[in-house]
Structure formats: structure tokens, C-alpha cells
# Entry
Amino acid sequence: MTSKLSAIVACTILTTVAGYFTGCCSDTGHTDMDKLNARAAQEYLDPIRPGYEGRNPYWNGFATKFIYAPAFDFKVVEGAVNYRYTVEFLGTEMTESPKYNVGRKTEDPEPRWILGEGKYTGEKWTFTADSPSKSLAPIWNDIPVGKARLTVEGLDSQGKVIGTSGTRDFLRDFPFHGPYNSNVRPYLESARMAALFIHELPAIQNWKHSTVPDMTYRHNTYACKIIGATIQLECLVARLLPRHRDDAELIARNAAQFLINESQPGNAPLAWFPPTYYSNLISSSREENQGKAMTMEACMAGNGFLDLYDLTGDILYLQQARHIADTYKALQAEDGSMPIKVDYTTGQPVNGCKAMLTPVMEYFDRLENQYGITDYKESLRKAESWMETMAMSTFDMTAQFEDMTVLDQKPYQNLTNCASAPYASWLLNKGEISDSDLENASDLIRFSEDQFVCWDVLPDPDGIRTMSTPTVYEQYGYRMPIDHSSAVVAKAMMDLYEITGDKLVLAKAKALVDNLTVVQNPLNGQIPTSLDLRDGYKNEGRGFWTNCTYASITALLKMAEIEGSILR
# Structure
């Protein structure tokens, strides 16, 4: 992963493309975009892994919005020979979220405006089918954006209703319909500005004279994720911005030393793992997180060590990265799985929930392909097998965030693009890509778009759209548009484009990446983490995540590479 990033950096530094990436993926004019829009509308009639195919269970029981025609797991009505599907349109009225004004200041509030209960507008669409669990493809493109209510009724041979199979309310969401705002500055320049903004933050500069984090930046409490990302970002600064190389290396070394100092001893069950939670701030203060570790997050620290080894040649960092990989190898079950969360000192799982293994697969793969270390080949094979046989067969792309609970979590209750999109990228970057890999990756990308991408958003009662679109929600449990999610979904789409040459896929990726340049502060380079509109103190207290900016920077660099290959 990072070796490819280094190649991207080298390419973008050597190739500064004049002008902007105009039109649709090197095509000019709206005629081509109109064709892509029409194609997108046709593709939205193809449901994503519907349960009636038999490959997967119905995965969308907790879903609230759809771009692709959905199919639901509705019951069979005894004696029914056919089923009537009726979709009633309930309008577009937005209402204030009850979670928003909770009487206390929260770092990251839920979106203020959500789709209301709605009421029947008089518009409806119907069709019949031989099953209660077919997709809405026959009428999908007739339904406007807004709240819809589906009712499926069983009919006897005379066409009389003899029972209801099920009902479901949902948002029929905006389809892709370009053109969107183009990038407002070259991608490489935008990436450099964002990296420099992080580099110059006081909490980052603190590392020049300390091996202890500045906790006024509270997200340092998530040590593996944030401090690991700090190391990666500073190594990137050293390459992208050579004038700042010495300071960036010093920052990265001291941040790495902190993680080494805080890691578990070599004889512990989680030997060499730095802590997921440090100090007692934000989610680290919750009882369920104290003394616990999110299994996959040590990969962030490990990749930081590898980046620092690449930058400095200091063998200490390669050894530290290998130690972490050794612990992953020991932690892996015989079936290839790993627990999602464990006790930090005993290594015992907190429950039976399994981790999405893409981060550790990327980590094992990097050690082998970049450094020739083959000790983890079998562990990688087992992890790949588990993801293919279990994760893909269930299609349960469950979230694994350190600030969200994994306790008492039902299957499909908290799906996220942060599991599906990186896994798609993994499949598309394998040395040999099978037809099955390509199909799975395409479905994972379609799922990521369907459930989390917001190509547009309905306005609030003041006529204001409260998100900067196009953007991407993070997860079911936190329906907030996040730059990191835009980045990882766009990255998967770009990976798919590089395999297939599909201009529609690239147009979608470009729209998401371009919006990162639109929301970027033109005066200081900051790319905000959350792309929602807030008022008053909720805007002043907006949280900011270093790892999210790092993801955005890598997406910008990849789009710069693609841009250069198209325009050269």
C-alpha cells in the first residue's frame, strides 16, 4: 500500500500537469456526461447482492436509504399466488433530529436535519411479482427523491389481497447526476496544502521537542490510530515538501518513540502492540474501552513504523513493525479470523464479533512484497480465505471504530463503507485478479455507494442543504459525512477504473475527490473531517482527525496520478 503511495508521490512530483482536470474524465462537454448519467440510472436497477439469489442473506434490515433498487426479506403469505408491490411517496419534508439538541455540547453531533415522518402525497407506483422479496427495479427510476413507503401484499388467484408480506419506509436517495463542482485547485497542490496544515499544528510541532503527545489535541487519546497516522503523514511531508524534511523526520521519530515506549512487553499476549486508548479522554474514558484494544488498529502504528523505516533506513522501525506482525500471526485463529476487540493485557476477546481483516492483510502483504519477508504468507492466505468465505458470504461489512461500541451488536446493525471499500481495493490490487475478485469488488463498491454516498441532499426548511455534497456517510451508527469515507470510496472506485477503464466509475470517484478540494480551506489548507453544516458552538467545537486528512491526501495524490496518465 505505502510502496504504491511512494510511487504516486514520485509520479506527481515529477509530473505537474498544467491546468485543471476539466470535463468528465478527459471527455469534454455535457453530452458525454449525459450518457454517463443515463447509464448510471440503468445500473441502479440492478440490486446489490439480493437475498433471493442465494449468495447472501438479505443484508439491508437496518438500512434507511437506497440508490440502487432494493429487495427486502418479506414473508410469504400462505395461499398467495402473486404479490402486489405498492410504493407510496411520503414527500421531502425535513425535521430537526432529536439527537441534535440534547442539552449538552457534543464534539460531533448527529446531523441537525433528517427526513421527517412524511405523509402520503397521492403519488404511488405498483407492480406484481411471484415472490414477496423481489427488487423494486420495475418502478425504481419512477420514484422521485424523498421518503417512500413500500407495502407488499399477497394476492390469491382472483387478485384479492389475502395478507401483507411486509412494509418498509426508506429514503429513495439521489442518483449520480453530473456534472458536479470540479476541483478548485490541482490535486497535488491540494494534497501539499492539507499535509502542511497538519504539519504546522501546535500539537504536531510539539513532537519536535517531546516524546509525549500534546493532549490539548484530544484525539491523541486514540494512540494507534492518530499517532500512527501522524508518523505516516510526517513521512509523507518529508517527501512531498522537502523543505520541511528535517522537522518532519524529527516529529515522526519522536511520535514513533512514544508508541514504542507505550507498547506491551515482548512476553505479553499483545506483545509490541501500542495502546488503542491512551489517557482518559473522549471515548477512552468509557468503561467498556478501558484496558481494551481494537485489534486492527495496531496496523496503523505498524505502517507508520514501516514508512519511517523507508524514510530513514533505521532498522529499529522495521523490527518494530515485524514484532507487531508476529503478534497478529499468534492472535489469528485457525480459520483465519481475528477478534474485533480484546483485553489489552490478556488478549482475550470481549465477545464473538470478528474483525474485518483488510488492514492486516494489507500489512502482511506489504511486508512480503516491499521487504521480501515471507513469514506471514500462510497467515495472509488464511485471512484472505476467511474474508472470502465468511465476510463476503454474509456481506456483513461491520464497523470497527474505537469510538463506537461493538458490544451487543446484531449482524448488519452497523455497516460501514470503511470495511467494504478498502476490501474492494484489496481485491483490485492483488497480483492476480480473478473474475470472482472483480465481481466481489464491484459489488462492494456498489454497496458503498448505495448505502453511504450522498450525491446530493434535501434542503432544510430554510432551503439550505446541510451537507457539502457529493460526500459519504461513515457508518450506520454515525450518519455523518466524513472526508475519510469520501477518500476510501473514491480510492476503491479509482482502483476499479484502473482495471476496467470504466469512465462512469471514474466520474463518480472524481466527483468525490473534487469535493475535497471544494471544502478545503483555501487560506490554511485544512480539509475538514466532517462535511456537514453546523451552527453556533457546534461548529466551533467541530472535531478534527489526523488519520482522516491522511486518507484524503492519499486520495488526492491518486487522482493526480490518474489525471497525469490521462492528460499525458
